[in-house]
């Protein structure tokens, strides 16, 4: 058995530009909680689309996410529900990210529903509506500009 390569996560300054969207995929057979991570477009002088892509790749690597065209790997316990709020362990030894989510999402995750984490490499406007977000995620998937994995709350 091989251990995954350790990749340093992006720092808190980069993570501050990452946005999260949550959703629930329900079928007759199962429910999966979804957590989508994307970065807003460049807004500071040192930011560029290329640097944002590098940072999002580092984020995906630090969480051991797998390629979009393979089975989503189990990535360890990355979600913790504390005092009714979900927190994402994105691979930093010191920091976690608070994720805003609906009561239903939190309740299902706390009860053991798997969480599928998606990290998109290309920036998306923070004000994008659900249709624009879905179109962007589909485009990233089709071009291989994303990684994914599955986690559970502990």
Helix and strand topology:
Blueprint: H1 12-15, E1 18-26, E2 31-39, H2 49-62, E3 66-67, E4 79-82, E5 85-88, E6 97-98, H3 103-110, E7 115-120, H4 130-143, E8 146-151
Parallel strand pairs: 2-7
Antiparallel strand pairs: 1-2, 3-8, 4-5, 5-6, 7-8
Walkthrough of the structure:
The chain is α+β, with helices and mostly antiparallel strands and 154 residues long. Helices cover 26% and strands 27% of the residues. The protein has four helices and eight strands. It has helices at 12-15, 49-62, 103-110, 130-143, and strands at 18-26, 31-39, 66-67, 79-82, 85-88, 97-98, 115-120, 146-151. The strands form two sheets. It has a five-stranded mixed beta sheet. It has a three-stranded antiparallel beta sheet with strand order 4-5-6, covered by helices on one side. A hairpin with an 8-residue loop joins β5 (85-88) and β6. It is globular.
Strand order of the largest sheet: 1-2-7-8-3
Count of helices? 4
**Average pLDDT rating:** 92
Stretches where pLDDT is under 50 for at least 5 consecutive residues are none
Please estimate the helix content. Answer: 25-40%
Shape assignment? globular
Order of SSEs, N→C?
Answer: HEEHEEEEHEHE
Radius of gyration: 15 Å
Number of strands: 8
Quote the distance from N terminus to C terminus: 24 Å
Structural class: alpha+beta
How does the major sheet shape up?
A: 5 strands, mixed
Q: Strand fraction band?
A: 25-35%
């Amino acid at each position: 058995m091989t251990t995954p390569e350790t990749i340093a996560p992006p720092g808190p300054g980069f993570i501050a530009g990452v946005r999260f969207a949550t959703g629930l995929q329900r079928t007759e057979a199962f429910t999966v909680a979804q957590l989508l991570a994307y970065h807003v477009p460049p807004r500071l002088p040192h930011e560029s689309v290329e640097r944002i892509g590098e940072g999002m790749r580092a984020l995906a690597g630090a969480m051991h996410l797998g390629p979009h065209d393979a089975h989503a790997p189990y990535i360890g316990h990355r979600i913790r529900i504390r005092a009714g709020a979900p927190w994402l362990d994105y691979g930093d030894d010191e920091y976690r990210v608070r994720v805003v989510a609906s009561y239903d999402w939190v309740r299902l995750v706390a009860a053991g529903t798997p969480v599928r984490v998606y990290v998109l490499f290309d920036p998306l406007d923070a004000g994008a509506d659900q249709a624009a977000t879905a179109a962007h995620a589909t485009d990233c998937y089709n071009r291989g500009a994303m990684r994914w994995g599955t986690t559970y709350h502990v």
